[in-house]
TrEMBL record:
<feature type="binding site">
    <location>
        <position position="88"/>
    </location>
    <ligand>
        <name>Ca(2+) 1</name>
    </ligand>
</feature>
<dbReference type="InterPro" id="IPR002016">
    <property type="entry name" value="Haem_peroxidase"/>
</dbReference>
<keyword id="KW-0964">Secreted</keyword>
<feature type="disulfide bond">
    <location>
        <begin position="36"/>
        <end position="114"/>
    </location>
</feature>
<feature type="binding site">
    <location>
        <position position="75"/>
    </location>
    <ligand>
        <name>Ca(2+) 1</name>
    </ligand>
</feature>
<feature type="signal peptide">
    <location>
        <begin position="1"/>
        <end position="25"/>
    </location>
</feature>
<feature type="binding site">
    <location>
        <position position="73"/>
    </location>
    <ligand>
        <name>Ca(2+) 1</name>
    </ligand>
</feature>
<comment type="similarity">
    <text>Belongs to the peroxidase family. Classical plant (class III) peroxidase subfamily.</text>
</comment>
<feature type="active site" description="Proton acceptor">
    <location>
        <position position="69"/>
    </location>
</feature>
<feature type="binding site">
    <location>
        <position position="79"/>
    </location>
    <ligand>
        <name>Ca(2+) 1</name>
    </ligand>
</feature>
<keyword id="KW-0408">Iron</keyword>
<feature type="disulfide bond">
    <location>
        <begin position="120"/>
        <end position="322"/>
    </location>
</feature>
<dbReference type="GO" id="GO:0042744">
    <property type="term" value="P:hydrogen peroxide catabolic process"/>
</dbReference>
<keyword id="KW-0325">Glycoprotein</keyword>
<feature type="binding site">
    <location>
        <position position="254"/>
    </location>
    <ligand>
        <name>Ca(2+) 2</name>
    </ligand>
</feature>
<feature type="binding site">
    <location>
        <position position="70"/>
    </location>
    <ligand>
        <name>Ca(2+) 1</name>
    </ligand>
</feature>
<dbReference type="InterPro" id="IPR019794">
    <property type="entry name" value="Peroxidases_AS"/>
</dbReference>
Amino acid sequence: MTAALGAATVLALALLCLTVVPSHAALQVGFYRGKCNGTDVEATIKSIVAARFGRDRSIVPALLRLQFHDCFVRGCDASILLDGSGTEKTARPNLSVRGYDLIDQAKAALESKCPGVVSCADIIVVATRDAVVLGGGTQYTYAVQTGRRDGNISVASDATRNLPGDSFSAPQAIAAFRAKGLSASDMVLLLGGHTVGLTHCSFILNRLYNYNGSGKPDPAMDPAFVAMLKSRCPQTSTVDNTVLLDHGTPTTVDNSYYKQLLARRGVLKVDQNIASDSATNATVRALAGGSSSFPALFGGAMVRMGGIQVLTGTQGQIRKSCRVVKK
Ligand code: HEM
């Protein structure tokens, strides 16, 4: 693809994203302004995320995944945060979700300033935005909408049913995102969240050693990459090691993930699938060549994901502890 064509594709993608899927009308930017006894709610969350990032950069992938897994199950209502047997966080795809303690910390700080005002659902979305900016730089700043309320229901089977599988084909993944009101381009943009963080070897052993029962690696993967991942994930290992999702720039939020996909270095099957499928390949290529447009496009998609099935107004509640429904 020529540079000019690449730029045109990115522009077309940007327009598509802006026009097709509106963000949620009942939410607003700056909902908490003037509502917390003189405390700046977003600044409070930001300082907590920044302090954690200073000690542990992996808070960026932790929060990105937390927001995705919250929003895809009963909407962005903090249902993933509820403790108890059989709640969402006990579902298999959520067992490695992290970041709950940071949300607790932000909630406690805000409850001490203005009890019963700031929802856990909004804390997730604001904290994730702050983490993305820390991980990627100020060009990743996006205005988050707030005004969400917290849900009262959390059921493990909802998580299993709604979260896409790691080996989904591109059409299956598109369908899962469409079911949440997100477009195919949003899906490709949001999978860009795999620009940071880790996966466990158990998710890719089949790709490395016995793809579709062939006894061989997945032919869609660069053989040198297979060899490198095999050394990290021995077939007979009793320990479930971790591997980076973006082997280009593993801890920076950027468009390197898409470049890796084009080099056949996608780690999860779903990642590689979006590079090869005709419905998503052009978007992957445009984003791989669009390091300057990716930040705003990614932010836009995050805002739209943050609008999935939100509770607003008098729906739901504002929890006191993010882990417990208020009686
Ligand atoms: C088709 C959609 C998706 C699938 C199938 C998928 C699947 C997965 C899987 C299997 C893992 C590894 C989990 C583990 O080893 O414990 C993972 C990690 C991750 N996912 Fe996704 N994901 C998808 C979309 C997203 C989206 C939309 C985001 C955020 C915008 C996201 C952000 C992350 C991050 C940051 C990690 C690393 C977490 C960490 O290091 O703790 N994913 N994903």
